[in-house]
């Protein structure tokens, strides 16, 4: 099993997903791994400091804020991010993330007089937009590259966004309250009626 497949398994475990062949294709190696794995969602995360956890939580919430649907914090995304960085990124990827997080931790108080998580939401968004502008030449931002291969040396902001979105849409809150959820096996119907405001179907069958 390659590392990307392991990452898929981690997302399944953290999201407490019940997978059927009709809803998600897993390799035999992934099925074997999942069958023997512990309850990953209850595993403690030990990588970030208290201050770093606050920064990651605030940044994730800016990326997917709570509105009339849950936000990143409601879905447990900060914990997901820490476990991914702690257990699943390789040394190079982890160093990129931790260096980016350290930059926020040290630079923002110097510029604003307070930590990132204590800034107004408009300021938090402006900081992330600045990181995006600085990273805009990364292949991660290639237009239309929505099914790209995993970019191992993507900048910190790209890692943060990818892990936030991934964690949210593999969480129970993201699946049941944002995507359209149907726990029964589905089949393709090219004539199924769809309204303009309908969200995408959840790719997993989740349970409480």
Alpha plus pi helix count? 8
Strand content: under 5%
Give me the side-by-side strand order of the main sheet. Answer: 1-2
Helix content: 40-55%
Order of helices and strands: HEHHHHHHHE
Top keywords for this entry?
mainly alpha; 2% strand; 50% helix; two-stranded antiparallel sheet; 8 helices; 208 residues; 2 strands
SSE blueprint:
Elements lengths: L2 H12 L2 E2 L9 H9 L13 H14 L13 H12 L2 H22 L8 H14 L21 H14 L2 H6 L27 E2 L2
Antiparallel strand pairs: 1-2
Q: Can you offer a commentary on this structure?
A:
The structure is a single chain. The protein has 208 residues and is mainly alpha-helical. 50% of the residues lie in helices and 2% in strands. It has 8 helices and 2 strands. Helix 3 crosses helix 4 (77-88) and helix 5 crosses helix 7. It is globular and about 50 Å long.
Quick recap of the structure?
By secondary structure, the protein is mainly alpha-helical.
């Amino acid at each position: 099993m390659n590392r990307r497949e392991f990452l898929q398994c981690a997302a399944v475990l953290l999201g407490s997903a019940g997978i059927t062949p009709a809803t998600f294709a897993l390799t035999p190696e992934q099925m074997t791994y999942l069958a023997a794995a512990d309850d990953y969602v209850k595993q403690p995360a030990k990588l970030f400091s208290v201050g770093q956890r606050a920064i990651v939580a605030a940044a994730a919430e800016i990326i997917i804020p709570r509105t009339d649907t849950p936000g990143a914090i409601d879905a447990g995304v900060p914990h997901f991010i820490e476990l991914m960085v702690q257990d699943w990124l390789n040394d190079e990827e982890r160093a990129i993330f931790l260096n980016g997080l350290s930059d926020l931790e040290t630079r923002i108080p110097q510029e604003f007089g307070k930590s990132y998580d204590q800034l107004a939401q408009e300021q938090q968004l402006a900081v992330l937009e600045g990181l995006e502008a600085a990273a805009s030449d990364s292949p991660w931002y290639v237009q239309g590259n929505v099914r790209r291969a995993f970019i191992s040396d993507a900048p910190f902001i790209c890692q943060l966004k990818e892990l936030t979105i991934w964690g949210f849409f593999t969480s129970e809150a993201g699946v049941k309250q944002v995507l359209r959820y149907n726990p029964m096996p589905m089949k393709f119907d090219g004539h199924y009626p769809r309204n303009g405001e309908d969200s995408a179907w959840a790719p997993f069958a989740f349970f409480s």
